[in-house]
Amino acid sequence: MNPEVLIYPFIFLAIFFESFVLVTFLSKPARDGRARRPSEAAPSVAIIVPVWNEETTIGGTIESLLALEYPQDKLSLILVNDGSTDGTKAVVDRFSEHPQITAIHKENGGKFSAMNLGIAHAEDAEFIGFLDADSFVEPDALKEIIPCFARGQVAAVTAAMSVHEPKSLLQHMQAAEYTFGITYRHVFASINGLYVTPGPFSFYRKSILNELGAFRHAHQTEDMEMALRIQRAGYEIENAPRARVYTKSPDTLTKLVKQRTRWTAGFIRNVLGEYRDLVGSPKHGVLGMLVLPSAVLTIGSGILLFFLMLFQLSQSLVTAIEVRAGIPLSYALLPHGTFDWLSVPTDFLLVLGVTALLVSLSFVVIGKYISGTPGKIAFGLISYTFLYGFVAPLWLLRATADVTFKKERGWRE
Length: 413
What we know:
The chain is α/β, with parallel strands linked by helices. It folds into two domains: 3-18 and 288-404, no CATH class; 28-252, Spore Coat Polysaccharide Biosynthesis Protein SpsA, Chain A (Alpha-Beta Complex). The chain contains 14 helices and eight strands. Strands 3-2-1-4-7-6-8-5 form an eight-stranded mixed beta sheet, with helices on both faces. Helix 7 packs across helix 14 (378-404).
């Protein structure tokens, strides 16, 4: 059997999934989400910034929050220094006298503990927001968030995340990936299919947080676990596609793989652990029947396709050696006749693959358009096309191995 035959089901699923996303994007609920406009309503809001060893970025994060276009008497900022060992404490203390700011210093206990301490100090807030200490928001972002809470069933709202000032090829790849994610979050929010409320500028209705309980360690993915808890409880997670927030992205492959290993391992442990009842559950609609199963399959297919790619490259290498040296290595390394290289219409496979890629790239363009994210994206599209398929399997393999062998890593390992 030709190993290329194994690729067909995954490309079919990818095209099916992309078609579903496109149809949903054109549906009325998604159109209504894009048509939503900022409101003049100004309920009380507290934004919590958990910070650990971010002395170079926390100042800019705080300044971007102070520049939000929102009544000062309705907005409070709570900075929670989680036992930083660098100069973070000094930077936080510079802002501690500001009337909107409460600065708290505590022993290191993990991000989730800092978030919970911040909530405890937000006694009068109707809505609670979080912002990572390496992220920055646009002045109108909060005005875009608040209208999404119009319905009482909405427990949380996510923003439109972009990479802050990408410089390297790897960061431009991530910039395209994040913009791709803007489209996905917008579409899946319209059918209540979100399973993560990212650290950069996600907001929660405080009364529902009080009902569901505190944030947990959750395999170092507390934002994902809380979103799954919200979904299990029957509430909704919305998205504000024009609430722009920018976050620093890893600038080296090592840092990127460490970050994504944590995200992917956390997903596997949460979704296939405590929340496995959501997977395949008709009760939870598109989230249970399509989004979560597809996300699990994506991990498996990414690893399988990576090994198939390595196999094909090895076969090409063997062929090149045969041609150059005149030595029939394929007869020595493989049983003659094991693979029939003419049995699969490779040109058709190429067409399907290119189609899936072009649709993915179109979602990047759509994400940029609906969010109004500034900057050029051509370099990001190119780097995403030629890099992502090679680097993503690195963290998929590492995360899967960690879960399989029950290996726990530190926050930045």
